[in-house]
Amino acid sequence: MDREAPAHPASVDGSAAHEEAAAAAERPTTGTPTDEPSTPAPQAVDHGRRALSTWLWRLPVLAAAGGAAYGVWQAYAIHFAKDAPAPNPVFDPVTDAEVAPLSAFSEVWDGVDFMAAGVPCVAVRVPAPVPGGLDVGVAVQLVAFSRVCTHLSCIVELNRDVEAVAFAFNHRSDRPSLTCACHFSVFDPLRAGRAVSGPAVRPLPRARLRLQGDLGGDPRIVCDGLERTS
Ligand code: FES
Which of 82, 180, 202 to mutate for ligand 1's pocket (most ligand atoms within 8 Å of CB)? Predict the structure, then answer.
């Protein structure tokens, strides 16, 4: 019996159909659109907006980092970045200003406020010589300072309460200090008025003292000069 001939050669071997389909897939698509469904075009990426939003998110982090860095700098400046007083101060002469009789300094850390050339000052008896101070010669050492704070010009006070200085000014010392209540700067009389805590950086200018009269009586202490600061 004769076998029936296939209707199409490809139907005999399916590989021909597969080859045709593969060729069609590889063939570049040219020409006009037909009734194939159109693919939606991808939306354009707005790189400018994306970069802006990225930076906006970074701003709080940068602000926090900047604040922390400023805090570290302030902590360093408050305690360490201070100018040293001149070891040999230069004084501009002023008209003699009465300070007090020597007997007003009978104890170490006695202090007397006075005015010299319109500048409020304080003279202090200290336990050891201080550059720019007055060695009276009977185991009495005096030194005097302008009371005008070198931060923003408030008036400093001789503060003998070391516990109060430690508590209120955050500066612990074993001796009295010159303190400014405006922004809590502290100056050390024994270190020639150096700023040791708070926002002030420069030391207090010194005032020159002179003994007038005989040690046998009760000589006067006068001020005749103010430290040049520039
Ligand atoms: S004015 Fe003295 S600490 Fe600011």
Answer: 180
